[in-house]
Write a structure and sequence with these properties.
This protein has about 160 residues and is α+β, with helices and mostly antiparallel strands. It contains three helices and six strands, in the order E-E-H-H-E-E-H-E-E.
């Protein structure tokens, strides 16, 4: 497996909330988004609750930004995890760079003027919480965030 052919941890049996959801190789932001969506549909949603559509869109945006940053600025994607929690989905994006993004702990303010970039971390800061950057054994880093999910309002039958 090279640094662009990364699989999430695989486990046997039915998905269990709070554990990493198995994924095939995750090489792109699109594959990571599909995997995160499957976690919501298969594990976070239940007979009594369904994730609010706006929150799922927020999750997809955060996944896109984190994975794209790992590919573009982090020496490539080294791993991706999406774990359901009672509050939402916890994401872990592993890359090959030890550099900590300066904007990761910024205010979340958008850049002044339009330069075509610099919007990713402000977006992540606004949509996610519990942001952490940790060194990985053997090099690189892991960026962890929690993207909150709310239950959608119940639809009236009739």
């Amino acid at each position: 497996m090279d640094k662009t052919d990364v699989a999430a941890p695989v486990r046997a049996g039915h998905p269990t909330p709070g554990r990493a959801h198995p994924a095939g190789p995750v090489r792109t932001a699109a594959e990571a988004r599909a995997h995160a969506l499957s976690v919501v549909l298969d594990e976070w949603n239940s007979a009594s609750r369904t994730a609010h559509e706006r929150d799922v869109i927020d999750l997809q945006l955060v996944v896109s930004e984190l994975v794209s940053n790992a590919i573009r600025h982090g020496g490539g994607l080294a791993g991706f995890e999406a774990v359901p929690t009672p509050d939402g989905v916890s994401l872990a994006v592993h890359d090959h760079s030890e550099a900590v993004p300066a904007a990761a702990f910024g205010s979340g303010d958008l850049p002044s003027g339009h330069h075509g970039s610099g919007y990713g971390w402000p977006l992540i800061i606004r949509l996610a919480r519990d942001i952490a950057v940790e060194p990985r054994p053997g090099g690189g880093k892991t960026i962890r965030v929690l993207v909150p999910l709310r239950a959608a309002p119940a639809q009236a039958s009739g």
